[in-house]
């Protein structure tokens, strides 16, 4: 009797628990009305362009974003389904016709359409296909922005078209439901549902990476299509995939896209703020060397002469922690915040300088690709050693004075600093990416005027902090490298 009562009690409790869980479970959203409302504003974009032999879409995009990233996976899948895009073919320099496809969405009743730059880059002809419309319509490229991979098209002579509105991607939360509509593999108006998996992803596609990651299925042909929230607003533009990983797609945040599209629609080229510095992230050792409490901020590794930062008094070794009252988490964050400021406008920069905060007002210049193009300098031959080799065993490297000809070979006006002649295998210096041929200009923000001064700073200030931060001249750029002292652990 007791056993039967116990069994009945357990069964009753289990039923109550299951019922409570079922009631608490959040149901999947019903997106049928949303698809009916927003689907007609999503279009299929097809392009035709002439390419030279051996210069396909993959090669064109790699010149922008480099190799080895998610876009390589994209093109592998694209070519698997649609065939090689412009690889080979064409004789006598005549080139060949290359056809590609993607997605887009209408943003105004009079026919403005947003898509990705890589969908229409170099196109001789662009056509737009609406849902349930047999005849494709010609579209004009109004403007493109390669750095954010966005483009704006226009269908002439149309009115009353269905269109989508941008939402606020800044309010987006990880875990929210999102909807992707596009033309994967040429299958028009395909709908997929998922959630926001992450925000602020950096995938190496461009200088302003800040992608929304989603598990809503995105495939070749989805590029340029909208990522929509449950209010029917566009909160992202689907752009990239990782073909080797299931359920991983990336979208450009709407808040970034709105400003770019607005400038393109006004017939302007996209303008971005320019500071004129080289920057890098801060690791724990660097923070320790700088006397900082955290790794937040962007470290200035060099300041370009005559540029806005130099005019405002920003110095090498400063750590920028906020711009215009907005905190700066890392170098990528600083790049985006500076770019969002219009050239000619001023902003307050807070920098940490030798442990103390300093506020600097900077009038931004204009970001220009020509300013970013730098040419490397080759060595012009061996010079006689300009002094005795001095070993810094705690770092695992050897240094000597820099000869004038060596300085000239790497673009320096005069010989200053010490030359690294050897880096021990497996040493702290090697692990910190310090290399033979690097020139150490500063140690813990003090000039390395000679091998003796270098050893002195390492032995005194370095030993006290347990770490040294080296300002290094490497070819035509300067970088910081932070090395913990082996005997300080």
UniProtKB/TrEMBL annotation:
<feature type="binding site">
    <location>
        <position position="149"/>
    </location>
    <ligand>
        <name>substrate</name>
    </ligand>
</feature>
<dbReference type="Pfam" id="PF13180">
    <property type="entry name" value="PDZ_2"/>
</dbReference>
<feature type="binding site">
    <location>
        <begin position="221"/>
        <end position="223"/>
    </location>
    <ligand>
        <name>substrate</name>
    </ligand>
</feature>
<dbReference type="GO" id="GO:0004252">
    <property type="term" value="F:serine-type endopeptidase activity"/>
</dbReference>
<dbReference type="InterPro" id="IPR009003">
    <property type="entry name" value="Peptidase_S1_PA"/>
</dbReference>
<feature type="domain" description="PDZ">
    <location>
        <begin position="384"/>
        <end position="476"/>
    </location>
</feature>
<dbReference type="InterPro" id="IPR001940">
    <property type="entry name" value="Peptidase_S1C"/>
</dbReference>
<dbReference type="InterPro" id="IPR036034">
    <property type="entry name" value="PDZ_sf"/>
</dbReference>
<feature type="compositionally biased region" description="Gly residues">
    <location>
        <begin position="85"/>
        <end position="95"/>
    </location>
</feature>
<dbReference type="Pfam" id="PF13365">
    <property type="entry name" value="Trypsin_2"/>
</dbReference>
<dbReference type="GO" id="GO:0042597">
    <property type="term" value="C:periplasmic space"/>
</dbReference>
<feature type="binding site">
    <location>
        <begin position="239"/>
        <end position="243"/>
    </location>
    <ligand>
        <name>substrate</name>
    </ligand>
</feature>
<keyword id="KW-0574">Periplasm</keyword>
<comment type="similarity">
    <text>Belongs to the peptidase S1C family.</text>
</comment>
<keyword id="KW-0732">Signal</keyword>
<keyword id="KW-0720">Serine protease</keyword>
<feature type="region of interest" description="Disordered">
    <location>
        <begin position="80"/>
        <end position="100"/>
    </location>
</feature>
<keyword id="KW-0677">Repeat</keyword>
<feature type="domain" description="PDZ">
    <location>
        <begin position="260"/>
        <end position="337"/>
    </location>
</feature>
<dbReference type="GO" id="GO:0006508">
    <property type="term" value="P:proteolysis"/>
</dbReference>
<dbReference type="InterPro" id="IPR001478">
    <property type="entry name" value="PDZ"/>
</dbReference>
<protein>
    <recommendedName>
        <fullName>Probable periplasmic serine endoprotease DegP-like</fullName>
        <ecNumber>3.4.21.107</ecNumber>
    </recommendedName>
</protein>
<keyword id="KW-0346">Stress response</keyword>
<feature type="active site" description="Charge relay system">
    <location>
        <position position="118"/>
    </location>
</feature>
<keyword id="KW-0645">Protease</keyword>
<feature type="region of interest" description="Disordered">
    <location>
        <begin position="370"/>
        <end position="390"/>
    </location>
</feature>
<dbReference type="InterPro" id="IPR041489">
    <property type="entry name" value="PDZ_6"/>
</dbReference>
<feature type="signal peptide">
    <location>
        <begin position="1"/>
        <end position="22"/>
    </location>
</feature>
<feature type="binding site">
    <location>
        <position position="118"/>
    </location>
    <ligand>
        <name>substrate</name>
    </ligand>
</feature>
<feature type="active site" description="Charge relay system">
    <location>
        <position position="149"/>
    </location>
</feature>
<dbReference type="Pfam" id="PF17820">
    <property type="entry name" value="PDZ_6"/>
</dbReference>
<dbReference type="InterPro" id="IPR011782">
    <property type="entry name" value="Pept_S1C_Do"/>
</dbReference>
<keyword id="KW-0378">Hydrolase</keyword>
<feature type="active site" description="Charge relay system">
    <location>
        <position position="223"/>
    </location>
</feature>
